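Reviewers asked in the last cycle whether our approach scales beyond single polypeptides. To address this, we selected a multi-component target totalling 500 residues and predicted its structure end to end. The input consisted of the following lines:
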Amino acid sequence: MYSNVVITGIGISTSIGRGIEQFTDALQKGVSGITRDDEDGLGIAGRIQSFDYEDRLAGLNLPDAILLRSRKAGRRAPRSAQVSIITALEAWMQAFSGKEGYPSEEIDVIVAGHNIGQQYQYRMAEKFKEHPEYIPANYALHFMDTDHVGILSETLGIQGEGFTVGGASASGNVGIFQAYRHIKYGLCKACVVVGAMADLSPVELQAFRQTGALGGKRFAAEPEKACRPFDADREGFIYGQGSACLILESAKSAQERGIDVWGEIAGGAVCLDGNRLSNPSVSGEARAMKKALEEAGSRPENVEYVNAHATSSVIGDEVEVQALKEIFGSHAANVWVNATKSLTGHCLYAAGVVEAVATLIQMKNGFLHPNLNLKKTIDDECRFAGLTSRAEICHLVLTNAFGFGGINTSIVIKKF
Amino acid sequence: MTKEKIFEVIKHNLLGILPDLDPASIEPLQSMRDLGANSIDRADVVIQSMEELNLKFPLHELGAVENIQGLIDFFHTKYLGNNP
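The resulting structure, written as structure tokens, was:
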């Protein structure tokens, strides 16, 4: 007998909200996190502003033992690892504070993302050119993505399975899908999945610019207008910084623990296009949504809302619209569609988890956040959310994420 | 560069890596290992202190150093070598 999989803790750090309360408010108000990017100098981005690790730890009301371990493991860690810790702690406190927990050996941790701390590596490379003698010994640990796994294991006291998963911009959904399987098949009691903040260096941003994938040229003077998924004037994706965390466990044990549930992960799918390039495919995206719904035992006509991948990419948004119409047919007119990236920018590896959190918040609070900047829609048949939030209670939702290399993913979330 | 100043630099970097350490408990005759610093922590205290003191040498030269006082003396000798 397989378990129903529910979410009992969520955490978030993005340009539009540090923590669930602030993020919820920003979703409701339709706040844009996109500003001129002084760090990059060339473009615009949705960066996490003025992040202070000690300050954020102090705001979490942590038990002394966790606070001490978090300070020791994270104080000198790269920014992306610090953001992972803060985000995971928020979810952890929600799921376990003041409640009965699980033995540490029965809790797993999955970090979604790869090539996570490239800004840190870039700084080290610059330092190395001048003073190789001053490269810290800790760099040998920090440059590996699995450092996030080790740090979370140490701070949260997790001793079950732990690993990173990669899937380009679909990494977050790949992580959620693996965590879902761990709970469904009873491999552990609880699984922490963290979408890691992609800390890109100027080199990666320049490479994205060279491919033509980055937007922000026409609206350079009005950054908050540059990220416009599904709008005719979109130009490409806008880099966003963000991390999010979900804690999954079985519905049965969550009920036994008497803990509030955010929602149910009812299914998911990961499928490949057989194409290493960046171009998306209608059939691959539709197949991911179809497989995810089959896994959930649900039908397309029961879906009420899709949190779209929708990066504001010229080709990507168009392909996703075609895939939505392929899977939903005439029901597309009834399915609400919005793009959290219109507020946060594209959080790359973390995007799937960020958008799962945004979806759970909307389902729990009975609203749909706006599609910022959607003035001229590229399609008349899909039902795009408007420029302001609206009250709407959704029971069955898809969240999409598609990555370079033909990695198509979709997750099914049910109201619990 | 006085030995007192070098001790202050080492102490500051040690506290940065081991934030739960009581500053008053750090004495020159102690070893960083006894204060709870693992091998990577110890290497990083040395490297950060080298950087602040503007010294450069291969870490293996520290082989015989047994405690914080030994490190202070080593840094001081290197400093005098650079600034005769």
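The first strand of chain A starts at residue 5 and ends at 14. We regard this as preliminary and will revisit it once experimental data from Aim 1 are available.
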